[in-house]
Amino acid sequence: MIKVIEARYLGEYRVSLAFSDGKEGILDGRELLKKNGPLLDALRSESYFQRLFIDAGALCWPNGLELSSARLYESCKAPETVA
Q1: pLDDT in tens, 23-63
Q2: Domain count, the chain
Q3: Residue 39 CA: distances (Å) to CA of 13, 16, 17, 33, 48
Q4: CA 5 from centre of chain
Q5: N- or C-end of the chain: fewer Cβ atoms within 10 A?
Q6: How far is the C-alpha of 39 from the C-alpha of 65, rounded, in Å?
Q7: Which residues, at least 6 apart from 68, have a Cβ–Cβ distance to it below 8 Å?
Q8: Is-contact 64 39, C-beta < 8 A?
Q9: Cα–Cα distance, 6 to 26 (Å, whole number)
Q10: Which domain does 47 fall in, by range?
Q11: Which residues pair with 55 in a beta bridge?
């Protein structure tokens, strides 16, 4: 199972991710925040969004929101394709 092994906040709701198989990508959190839900409300504050951390290979926030590594692996963009 592929896991997130590194996450680094880049600014403007973007997160650089590194996966256990060597793939790297960028998560555009603005796309995530287009969705609605009580766990996403806190992330609309950029200072809260920056509080991300990795737990058991998933990208997480203190309010309990957890994004699976499989979902992130499929949805993140290659660093060179992100403007």
Answers
A1: 999 999 999 999 999 999 999 999 999 999 999 999 999 99
A2: 1
A3: 16, 21, 21, 10, 12
A4: 12
A5: C
A6: 6
A7: 58
A8: yes
A9: 11
A10: 4-81
A11: 58
